[in-house]
Structure formats: C-alpha cells, structure tokens
Amino acid sequence: MQPVTAYIGIGANLGDARANVQDAIARLARLPGASLVDASASYRTAPIDSSGDDYINAVARISTTLPAEELLQALHAIEAAHGRERPYRNAPRTLDLDLLLYGDEQIASATLTVPHPRITERAFVLVPLLALAPAIAVPGLGAAQDFLAAVADQAISRL
After folding, report:
1. How many CA atoms lie within 13 A of 14 on its CB side?
2. Cα 129 to Cα 148: distance, rounded to the nearest angstrom
3. Is 96 an active-site residue?
4. Which among 84, 122, 153, 158 is annotated as catalytic?
5. pLDDT above 80 for 50
6. Which of 39, 60, 126, 139 lies at 20 to 30 Å from 158 by C-alpha?
C-alpha cells in the first residue's frame, strides 16, 4: 500500500491534559505502519457541547500505510492506554484522538466517517490543522480556510 497522509485531532481535558496530548504525539511517532510528519502547537479551548475543564488540543500529520479502519483501531488503543472512558457522548476525557482526514478519501462506514463530520465546525480542529497545512482542502467540502469565519466566535488560544 502506498503511504497516505492522515491528520489526527488530539484533545484532552482530564488529568494532565498537556502531558496527555504530548504523549499522544510521541505515541503516534512510534506507531507501527506510520510515521509522524509534523504536529501543531497546543491550543487551549473551552468545551463545546461538553463540560469540565478547558481542553488542550493539537493536530498531528502522519504518513501511514495502515488502512483507515486499522489506523482508527490504533488510535483507540492509544486512548485506552490513557484510561479513556466513554460514559456518554462528548464526556470529558483523558485523551481523544480523531481521524480527521485520510488522504483525499471520503469514508462512511459503521465505525468511521472521514472527513470527520464536525471538522469544519470546530476552531480547535481548524486552527491547528491550518497551522500545519494552510492550503488544505476537506474532501467533498473545499478549502478548510473557508470555514474559519464560521468558528470565529469559538475562543482558542495558542499555548
């Protein structure tokens, strides 16, 4: 399989959220079948459709030969290593890893939707994603930059 560029959204707001985000990036760098290309700075954001402390967020760009579903399973294993629990939708979390983009593919399966369904609705995704790839397009939707105005009211600060 040819390597695919994938973007991973990283977030945490329980425990040592900053350390959890940095550890997730380090684990992505060691992930078999993938290599870390780059990672954004970390950002602080207020919870959206959730509760609890502010989130620490980042985005990582990887090159991978893993099929999308296997990559998702690997991301879930990293979350589990951080004690991730899913008691209810958008619950506070020790670590959240989302497969945002997988090459230019559009995937809709029972377990995975790519591009991530809320990629264009969240400043905590768009801002670090655009820091890594200013000209990136969201397959089926267009230039990611075009969605920034719609999330301008969501507070985000670079750490």
Report:
1. 15
2. 11
3. yes
4. 84
5. no
6. 139
**Which H or E run includes 20?**
helix 17-29
Contact 35, 24 (CB under 8 A): no
Q: What is the pLDDT of residue 8?
A: 98
Q: Residue 53 catalytic?
A: no
Residue at token pair 């377990």: 111
Which class for 71: exposed (0-12), middle (13-18), buried (19 or more C-beta within 10 A)? buried
CA distance 88 to 128: 26
**Residue partners of 154: CB distance under 8 A and separation at least 6:** 45, 46, 48, 122, 123, 124
**pLDDT tens digits for 54-81?**
999 999 999 999 999 999 999 999 999 9
Whether 38 sits among the annotated catalytic residues: the reply is no
**Ramachandran angles phi, psi of 129, nearest 5°:** -60, -45
Question: Comparing C-alpha atoms, which of 6, 14, 4 is closest to residue 100?
Answer: 6
Nearest-5° angle of CA 34, CA 78, CA 81? 145
Q: Is pLDDT at 20 greater than 60 in this prediction?
A: yes
Least Cα distance to 94 among 82, 81, 86 occurs for: 82
CA distance 101 to 6: 5
Query: How does residue 87 score in pLDDT terms, banded at 50, 70 and 90?
Result: low
